[in-house]
Write a structure and sequence with these properties.
about 280 residues, alpha+beta, Alpha-Beta Plaits, 7-stranded antiparallel β-sheet
C-alpha cells in the first residue's frame, strides 16, 4: 500500500455543544452530510469571496478536526477564536504534526472525498505512519486526478472556491445558508461566471518549473502549479483555452507545447465559441 508523509500539516480541533452550528455559519463546507469516516475540503473566505484559509475537515467525537497547512495553523486558530464570541466552542491547536496519506486499498484513516469522487480510495490520518514515503508519489496522484492544494497550485487570498473546483469536490455549499463570502461565490455559481479552473497539463517532454506561465499567442492564461515530469496542474482561463483549442492555436508552458484536460470527475468541459456567446 503506497503512502506518503506530509510534514507540513497541522491539526486544529474545534469542539463543544455549538461547534457544528458555529462552523456552519463560517466555512464553505456543509457539515450536515459529513459522514464519520469522511474528510472534505473546505475554506474560510474573505468577505470578497476569496480563500483566506483552506483545509480538510472531518468529524472527531463531539467536534471536528481540521487538517491545515502548518504555516497557517496559528493564524487560523486566532481567526476562529475571534469569531467565537460567546459560543460554547473550544478551538485548540493539536500537538500532532504532519499527516500520513495512503492509497490503493488503503486501510486506516478517514476517506478523502476529493479522491473518492474520482473513484480512488485515499485515506489520511494524523502523524507519521511507519514506512510512509515522501510526498512525490502523493503529488503525482494529485496531478493524475486534478486535485490542487494551496502553496503548490494557488496562493491564499488570490483564488475563489470555483477556481480550485470546490464547487465540484464538496468543498462549498450553495444551499446551507450564509457564511463569510457566501454572497460572492453564490453569485458566481448562479450566473456561471467562473472562468478560471484547475486543469491537468501534459507534454511530450518534461514540463518547465512550477510558476512558468501558460500562454496562447503570447498572452498568459495561467501558470503551472505542481509539476512531476511531463505532467502537472495549473489554474487557467478555460474560456481562452477553449478558444485556442477550437482554432488549433498552440498552448505553451514557457516554450513547451502542452495539452490541457479538465478532471473527468468535475463534469466540466472547455467552452466553445457558441457557448461563450
Amino acid at each position: 500500500m503506497p503512502s506518503a508523509f506530509l510534514p507540513d500539516r497541522a491539526f486544529v480541533r474545534i469542539a463543544g455543544p455549538d461547534a457544528e452550528h458555529f462552523l456552519q455559519n463560517l466555512i464553505t463546507t456543509d457539515l450536515g452530510p459529513l459522514a464519520d469516516n469522511e474528510l472534505r475540503p473546505g475554506a474560510l473566505l474573505t468577505p470578497q469571496g476569496k480563500i483566506f484559509f483552506d483545509f480538510l475537515i472531518s468529524r472527531d467525537g463531539d467536534g471536528f478536526l481540521v487538517d491545515i497547512r502548518a504555516d497557517q495553523a496559528d493564524a487560523f486558530v486566532r481567526r476562529m477564536s475571534m469569531y467565537k464570541l460567546r459560543a460554547a466552542v473550544a478551538v485548540e491547536l493539536q500537538a500532532e504534526n504532519g499527516s500520513t496519506v495512503s492509497w490503493g486499498n488503503a486501510g486506516g484513516g478517514v476517506v478523502d472525498q476529493r479522491f473518492a469522487i474520482a473513484g480512488t480510495d485515499v485515506r489520511r490520518q494524523p502523524g507519521h505512519v511507519e514506512g510512509a514515503g515522501d510526498r512525490e508519489g502523493y503529488d503525482a496522484l494529485r496531478i493524475l486526478h486534478g486535485v490542487p492544494e494551496s502553496d503548490f497550485d494557488y496562493a491564499l487570498q488570490d483564488a475563489f472556491p470555483h477556481d480550485v473546483l470546490f464547487d465540484k469536490s464538496g468543498g462549498v455549499s450553495f444551499r446551507k445558508g450564509c457564511y463569510v463570502g457566501q454572497e460572492v461565490v453564490s453569485r458566481m455559481h448562479h450566473r456561471s461566471t467562473a472562468r478560471r479552473r484547475v486543469v491537468i497539463v501534459s507534454a511530450d517532454t518534461a514540463l518547465p518549473a512550477s510558476g512558468t506561465e501558460i500562454t496562447i499567442c503570447g498572452k498568459q492564461i495561467g501558470a503551472l502549479g505542481t509539476v512531476a515530469g511531463d505532467r502537472g496542474l495549473a489554474i487557467v482561463r478555460i474560456d481562452k483555452a477553449g478558444e485556442a483549442m477550437n482554432a488549433g492555436e498552440p498552448i505553451l508552458a514557457g516554450d513547451v507545447p502542452v495539452a490541457l484536460a479538465l478532471p473527468g470527475w468535475s463534469g466540466l468541459s472547455f467552452p466553445t465559441a457558441s457557448e461563450e456567446a
